[in-house]
Amino acid sequence: MRKFGMLDPIIHAPIRLAILTVLISVKSADFTFLKEATETTDGNLSTHIQKLENAKYVKVSKSFVGKKPKTTLSITKLGRKAYENYVEEFSAYLKHTSG
Amino acid sequence: MNSTQNEINNNLNVIKSMIEKTKTNTAESGSIFILWGWLVITASVLTYFFVCKEWFDRIGYIWFLLMGFGVVATILLVNRHVNRKRVKTYSQLALSNLWFACGISFFIIAWIGLPLKVIPFESLYIIMAVIAGVGLFATSGILDWNMLRVSGTLWWVAAIVMMFIHWHFHTLIFALATIPGYLIPGYALNKKYKKNQNA
Questions:
Q1: Contact status of B65 with chain A (Cβ, < 8 Å)
Q2: Which ranges of A13-76 does DSSP label H, i.e. alpha helix?
Q3: pLDDT digits (tens, 9 = 90+) for B34-59
Q4: Which pLDDT score, from 0 to 100, does residue A1 have?
Q5: What is the pTM of this model?
């Protein structure tokens, strides 16, 4: 029997799941876009990004547009694989509970 | 069990909501279609006028000036777009590569093939229309938008029509094909983009 708790804990937190769901469908997204999409604060978003970066699930690049700093994120191969596994496990669990 | 079920529902909602937000924030503005649509119509109508007046030596200048302006304006628009854009999608990457390839094809045909007389003037607009059809048809697949499939097909129809009429009128057919081929999709994309921005 599948256990819901066995899902990847790094992805399982709603904000981190939200970040990876955005990043899986785009080439890259900047910090402001993710902040608006996840409807969270700068600090909270940074903490979750840090966790994803430590797990090597996302790549963070910093640049300047004019004089403004810009943080851009993209998903890594490892992150993509982990997200795919998460969705697979999640779907299997849904099937198990509904059937 | 209840809290687990809540977690599942919550995470499902997170996935759905993020997919929706990403989708509505990555629409294309259509400004490049509009820019090139008007430039091509202007250059084609002027070419027809110059052909009627038999000012053949001036035709190259019109295209050189208008297309040069188009390239510079496109570079500026793309740069502004890239700086403003907060998200870069795979479809944008595919589109920029596709239209860059079409642009290079237009350049090889019109600015190398034509002066070297390898491509005759009689075939120029037919080849350009075929390439534009490929660009529009492929774009329709990338953006999943059937209207562009019709636009692409109309470019190919225009190419076939040009094969049956005198080359003097090719530029007029080309200008006509630009309306459904570039302008209408450009303005439709722009309307959709503005609607998404205001949502």
A1: no
A2: 14-25, 31-38, 42-54
A3: 999 999 999 999 999 998 888 888 88
A4: 47
A5: 0.76
In which order are the strands placed within the sheet that holds A68-75? A58-65, A68-75, A28-30, B87-88
Is A12 contained in some domain?
A: yes
Q: Give me the residues paired with residue A30 across strands.
A: A72
DSSP A3: -
CATH of the domain at A72: 1.10.10.10
For A19, the domain range is: 7-94
Residue A2 within any structural domain of the chain: no
The interface predicted TM-score (ipTM) is: 0.75
Residue A1 lies in a domain: no
Length of chain B, please?
199
Q: Do B11 and A17 touch (CB under 8 A)?
A: yes
Contacts of B115 (CB under 8 A, 6+ apart): none
Q: Which residues contact B38 (CB under 8 A, 6 or more apart)?
A: B183
Inter-chain touch B22–A37, beta carbons under 8 Å: yes
Task: Convert the pLDDT of each residue in A5-53 to its tens digit.
Answer: 578 889 988 999 999 999 998 889 999 989 988 889 999 999 999 999 9
Q: State the total domains in chain A.
A: 1
